[in-house]
């Protein structure tokens, strides 16, 4: 009997603890391929019929990311290249990660002190809102 193949699908979250917001998640090829595979499910057909403004949650951003990223043309399979680390934003936009893109995110969220940032490991996700990572892993802010 074959042993099931296990894939590391953990994510590292960069969290602004002061602003109570997930800035982005660092992800491997396997995680991005998993997210993009969700679009091959029957729900993706319905999503493609809707305009981006008509969609609920983050699936529209995920669809757009598939269209914007170069797919693998090598023998490794999947949707994206394995040698690249990817950045998954709170709205599930996916893009290649680099030092410059990370600094750009910090600037966009007006992060002045790196001491307010914390790394967390992501174990599961939800597709029910436009701020998936923040809602699932930090909970909603109490008013």
Helix content: 25-40%
Shape: globular
- State the low-pLDDT regions, or none: 123-127
Sheet/helix structural class: alpha+beta
Number of domains: 1
Task: State the distance separating the first and last CA atoms.
Answer: 54 Å
Percent strand equals 15-25%
Radius of gyration: 16 Å
Q: How many separate helices?
A: 5
Order of SSEs: EEHHHEEHEH
Give the biggest sheet. 5 strands, antiparallel
Strand order of the largest sheet: 4-3-2-1-5
Number of strands: 5
Mean pLDDT: 74
Write a brief structural summary:
This protein is of the alpha+beta class and 143 residues long. It is 31% helix and 18% strand.
Outline the secondary-structure elements.
Elements: E1 11-16, E2 21-27, H1 29-38, H2 42-49, H3 59-68, E3 86-89, E4 94-96, H4 99-108, E5 117-122, H5 132-138
Antiparallel strand pairs: 1-2, 1-5, 2-3, 3-4
Organism: Pyrus ussuriensis x Pyrus communis
Protein name: DUF674 domain-containing protein
Describe this structure in words.
The chain has one domain (11-138). The protein has 143 residues and is of the alpha+beta class. 31% of the residues lie in helices and 18% in strands. Residues 123-127 have low confidence and may be disordered. The chain is globular and about 40 Å long. Strand 1 and strand 2 (21-27) form a beta hairpin. It comes from Pyrus ussuriensis x Pyrus communis. This is DUF674 domain-containing protein. InterPro entries: DUF674.
């Amino acid at each position: 009997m074959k042993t099931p193949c296990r894939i590391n699908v953990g994510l590292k979250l960069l969290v602004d603890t002061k602003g109570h917001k997930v800035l982005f998640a660092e992800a491997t090829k396997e995680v991005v391929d998993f997210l993009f595979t969700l679009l091959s499910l029957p729900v993706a057909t319905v999503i493609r019929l809707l305009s981006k403004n008509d969609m609920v949650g983050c699936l529209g951003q995920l669809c757009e990311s598939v269209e914007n990223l170069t797919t693998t043309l090598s023998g490794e399979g999947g949707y994206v290249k394995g040698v690249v680390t990817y950045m998954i934003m709170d709205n599930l936009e996916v893009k290649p990660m680099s030092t410059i893109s990370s600094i750009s995110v910090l600037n966009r969220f007006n992060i002045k002190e790196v001491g307010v940032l914390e790394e967390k490991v992501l174990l599961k996700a939800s597709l029910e809102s436009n701020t998936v990572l923040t809602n699932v892993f930090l909970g909603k802010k109490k008013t």
